[in-house]
Amino acid sequence: MNPPHTDEELVAFMLQNQQEAFRQIYDRYKSALLVYAMKRVPFDVAEDLVHDVFMRLWNNRSDLEIKERFVGYIFKSLRNRISDFIAKEEKGAQYLNSLEDFAATFSYSNADDLLREKLFMDRINNLLLKYGPHYQLILKMKLEGYSNQEIADKLGYSEKTIRNQSWSLLKYLRSKFIIFLFF
Amino acid sequence: MKIDRNLLHRYQQKQCSQEERALIDSWIDSLADGSPEINDDLLLARLASLDERVEASLGVRPIKKQKKWAVAASILIPILLFGGYYANQYLAAKRLTELAAIESPNWTKSVIVMENNQEINIDSIRIGDTLHVGKYSLVKHSNGEIQYVNLPQDDAPIFNRLTTMTGGISSIVLADGSKVWLNAGSELRYPIKFDKSSREVELIGEAYFEVAKQEIAGERIPFYVRNAKKTISVLGTKFNANFYDEPEIALLEGKIALSKTAAQTEAQGLTYQETLLPNDVYSRGKIQSSTDIKRYVYWKNGYFNLNDVKLATLVKRMEEWYNIPIVMDEALGNEVLIGRISRSKKIKEILDLISIALPASYDYKNGIIYLKFEKQK
Q1: Which DSSP letter does residue B196 get?
Q2: Domain termination residue (choose one: B296, B321, B348)
């Protein structure tokens, strides 16, 4: 199997109007972007905003200017969409109080710009660890009753990788469970 | 710095200062702090819907995009101008439709972990199927029970584990004919074949046992259920063992004895000081007789027990069963209902029931159910 294309290669293909490259980018980031949005705005809005981010990427590809790593670019596009929602929507008003509170504790020094960027990228990388490109597929196949081995065969992973992923999920569920259920 | 919508508009237009930009960036990043993990099922549903929309957008509308926005704007602007109230009503209705779509889980959501750590998903075995796995086979009976067949001849013990996730219940017939129902989020470790002189299983969580009597030369073979907190010594009998938190053990038939502590084995000095007779319940260190022993196994037949259960406890069981967080006003926590509710009901049906019976109302936002106290009722 060939190593997967880098984001930057895919973007280059996408600029040559290759829809398949766009689809690969979409599959790579949709879960993580959706989680990022769902944790910040109502779920239905989150879905709209992520849809919007991808459609803007594809529709405006001819005048796209990406001056940084693509992963940072696409999450910043989403952050921008979120601010747009807050600025325009009726419901956005309630967010302004939270911004005011936040501003009261915020002190700016441009020396911190790099640190802020690093924190942002750390958050994204943490999201991508769990909600990477195969998150949706693995979970779906598990629900459909495929064994770890079958999933591993189909996706070209080692069985151990899949098993580890499902065990950590199980462990997480169990830890949550013990907190929730005592009687 | 003035905090208002204008600031956000300038941020949008890239006309704000570096300081303002840093503020808003950091603020949006921080909005997720303390928000709960996203429920996998809800996320999958959103992803499926997103996939469909992206496909549709790619297929139907290759490059043009003005039109959709014009249409959207022509609908949205009047709503924003005149329809605040109706929009709110609409959104509330939409949220409740989403809630109504949450079905009760109808899968066992359980796996058998074999001795080589391979997992067998119980839901993937069809009723009546025999699955050959290495040295032995598994059958799924019409009632969903799993049973081992074609056991290996040699006596080397093989231990497997049956594990249920949240929202799953599973049942198994052990090698001696004893039956075990495993409640959600629990695990049973058992040998696929018992040795001749004793029978032992380990339990985490909750299970109901119907232990078969076994004798060799007139001598009864004991059956032990071990847990980190207690060991139960059993002769033929029916009982429920709940080790989710504080041990709660309810005896329906027969006789069982409980160890005081959890020392490893009988040889290491484990003794049984407490004996339960039918209808006895061991809970919080005491044995009491119950007039309604069956309520302890309602879960096995697919019900939530309500008798003598505070709403706070019921809500915890619902969260667990439907895998969805519920935030409840503390004032409701001590309310009590009577009876039982089928677990196959949708969560919204149960919430409807609660809000009829109690001074409560509910709402559903961002994947969280809010159960609120309402005085007027």
Answers
A1: S
A2: B296
Question: Do B244 and B349 fall within a single domain?
Answer: no
Q: Are residues A119 and A143 in the same domain?
A: no
What is the maximum span of chain B, computed from C-alpha positions, in angstroms?
A: 91
pLDDT band at B302 (very low <50, low <70, confident <90, very high): confident
Other C-beta atoms closer than 10 Å to the C-beta of B325 total 16
Q: How far is A163 from chain B (nearest CA, A)?
A: 8
Q: 215-274 in B: which are within 8 Å (CB) of A?
A: 242, 244-246, 248
Q: Which CATH number characterizes residue B131's domain?
A: 2.60.120.1440
Any idea which of A127-136, A149-158, B77-86, B320-329 has the lowest mean pLDDT?
B77-86
Is residue B313 less than 8 Å (CB to CB) from chain A? yes
Both B272 and B335 in one domain: the answer is no
The answer to whether the CB atoms of A44 and B94 lie below 8 A apart is yes
Query: What pLDDT does residue A36 have?
Result: 94
DSSP H helical segments within B246-346, as ranges? 311-322
pLDDT digits (tens, 9 = 90+) for A142-158: 666 677 777 777 766 66
* Distance separating alpha carbons of residues B344 and B324, to the nearest angstrom: 15
Is A182 in contact with B242 (CB distance < 8 Å)?
no
pLDDT bin (cut points 50, 70, 90) of residue B246 is confident
Q: Which domain holds residue A65?
A: 7-131
CB contact under 8 A, B22 and A113: yes
Does pTM top 0.80 for this prediction? no
- Please give the tally of structural domains in chain B: 2
CB-based contact, A183 to chain B, within 8 Å = yes
Write the CATH number for A96.
1.10.1740.10
The amino acid that residue B199 corresponds to is: R
Domain total in chain A: 2
Report how far residue B207's alpha carbon sits from residue B297's, in angstroms, rounded to the nearest whole number: 9
**Interface contact flag, A34 B24, Cβ < 8 Å:** no
Q: Are residues B144 and B259 in the same domain?
A: yes
**Residue A169 phi/psi, 5° resolution?**
-65, -45
Which A positions 104-163 lie with beta carbon below 8 A of chain B? 106, 108, 110, 112-113, 116, 119-120, 123, 136, 139-140, 142, 144-149, 163
ipTM of the complex: 0.79
Same domain, A174 and A92: no
Domain that holds residue B355: 302-373
Whether chain B has a CB inside 8 Å of the CB on A63: the answer is no
Q: Quick one: closest CA in A to B184, which residue?
A: A177
Q: What is the pLDDT of residues B159-201, one digit of tens each?
A: 999 998 877 789 999 999 999 999 988 999 999 998 888 899 9
Taking the C-alpha atoms of residue B130 and residue B288, their distance in angstroms, rounded to an integer, is 44
Q: How far is A159 from chain B (nearest CA, A)?
A: 9
Cα–Cα distance measured from residue A100 to residue A96, given in angstroms and rounded to the nearest whole number: 6
CA angle, A99 as apex, A93 and A101 as ends, to 5°? 120
User: ∠ at Cα B185 (A141, B41), nearest 5°?
Assistant: 40
